[in-house]
């Protein structure tokens, strides 16, 4: 059972926290921002990979 439904696209989730994270990813909102250059990303993993471009790692 997936009782938590996105009001924007109808996708359902079994945890409210996952729904909350999902809803932030709809167009226009990228909550994970690089402190070095200001570029924003949908997922923290994308930000982590991007940050390596600044450090050269």
Automatic annotation (TrEMBL):
User: Which of UniProt's keywords are assigned here?
Assistant: Metal-binding, Repeat, Zinc, Zinc-finger
**Record-annotated C2H2-type domain positions:** 4-31, 32-57
The UniProt GO MF terms for this protein read:
zinc ion binding
Main localization, broad class:
nucleus
* GO-annotated cellular components: nucleus
Entry keyword Chaperone: no
Checking Pfam families in the record gives:
zf-H2C2_2
**InterPro entries given in the database record:** Znf_C2H2-type (IPR050758), Znf_C2H2_sf (IPR036236), Znf_C2H2_type (IPR013087)
In which compartments does the protein localize? Answer: Nucleus
- Quick check: keyword Acetylation in the entry? no
Q: Mind telling me which SMART domains this protein's record contains?
A: ZnF_C2H2
Family matches, as SUPFAM superfamilies: beta-beta-alpha zinc fingers
Q: Which PANTHER family match?
A: RIKEN CDNA 6720489N17 GENE-RELATED, ZNF44 PROTEIN
In Swiss-Prot or TrEMBL terms, this protein is called Mszf15
